[in-house]
Amino acid sequence: EVFAPGTPAEVRRATWVSVQRRLELSGSTARVMVAVLRKQVKKIEVTRHAKYTCAFCGKDSVKRQAVGIWKCKSCRKVLAGGAWTMNTSAAATVRSTIRRLREMQES
Description:
Structural class: alpha+beta
């Protein structure tokens, strides 16, 4: 569930109903769309609050401080990353391209 533990069911229901109204959805379409939104929000929340492995000290102690700012509690390094995950797919592509170009230059 996306909401904090102990949040009453009425509050949760009312929140998603307001989302439904803002999107101007009705009936079964609204239920399906709100379910999709709920799943997306849950995925983002789980990845955002997860601990990641630090590239410097190797410990699972990197947590999100703000949008795109990640800090290792063990070695106190501050890293730049994605908004919801530490490593983005674009960053992985750039790293592999740089590695490939370096290898071409060395040989």
